[in-house]
Amino acid sequence: MEILREHGIDAATHRARQLEPEMLREADLVLAMERRHLNAASQLAPEASGKLFLLDKWHDDSDVPDPYRKSRRVFEDAYALIERGVSSWLRYLE
Q: Which of 46, 62, 81, 90 has the most crowded Cβ, counting Cβ within 10 A?
């Protein structure tokens, strides 16, 4: 939360939710941080697999490692990868 605040993002009201098949069916695009997330989502709703992509698709097509319980530096690195991934998708969504 601290790193997000430093970048002007207020995530105080964000709450994680368990992914459900209906969420995948209703979404136009689903971006995952890791391949294992893509695989799990595809298993949950196979009909949605055509709209499931890695966040880093337009760069290295690599995973964004989960920084949970790691150092601040790992969180900063994850933030940079997320920002890069989101920025690379914007040109396809506008």
A: 81
CA distance between the termini of the chain:
28
Q: What is the pTM of this model?
A: 0.88
Number of structural domains found in the chain: 1
Q: With contact defined as beta carbons under 8 Å apart, do 19 and 43 qualify? A: no
Has residue 51 been placed in a domain? yes
Contact present, 51 and 30 (Cβ < 8 Å): yes
Burial of 55 (0-12, 13-18, 19+ CB in 10 A): buried
Can you give the pLDDT of all 94 residues of the chain as single tens digits? 999 999 999 999 999 999 999 999 999 999 999 999 999 999 999 999 999 999 999 999 999 999 999 999 999 999 999 999 999 999 999 7
Interatomic CA distance for residues 52 and 88, integer angstroms: 16
* Burial degree of 54 (CB within 10 A; 0-12, 13-18, 19+): buried
